[in-house]
Amino acid sequence: MNSAHNYGNGDASFQAAGGETGIFTLVNAFFDRMGSDERFATIWHMHPDDKAVSRDKLARFLCGWLGGPRLYNEKYGAIGIPRVHAHLPIATAERDQWLTCMSETVDEQPFAPEFKTYLMEQLFVPAEAVRRRCSS
Known about the structure:
The chain is mostly helical. It has helices spanning about 10-15, 20-35, 40-45, 50-65, 70-75, 80-85, 90-105, 115-135. It has one domain (about 10-135): Globins (Globin-like, Orthogonal Bundle). About 65% of the residues lie in helices and about 0% in strands. The longest helix is centred in the C-terminal third of the chain and has 22 residues, at about 115-135. It is globular and about 35 Å long.
């Protein structure tokens, strides 16, 4: 936990990400990057052709995961990140594609530098859990 900013406590991370608007902006930029950069083609093609629901699910998940409103649960119900990805062939390469795409997108957001670092450190945890579940 970053004690100077209390990321991870209450809604501090949600607020640092710009609330719902900032998170939806991040997710849309993330999917735009994923779809326009060949380095991310593998993970892009793991999503349905119509990415609207995938965008919505990720943004809603991140809102709650970062301490804001539990928008994913309100619309889609409970989520188990590794379980919902278990049908996909996600190994180290796919995990790293996702993390690289997200990191580059996070870097372009108007977030505090400390929050960018914190966010990527935190996102590694579910990304690795998905890799472990899917590659076992």
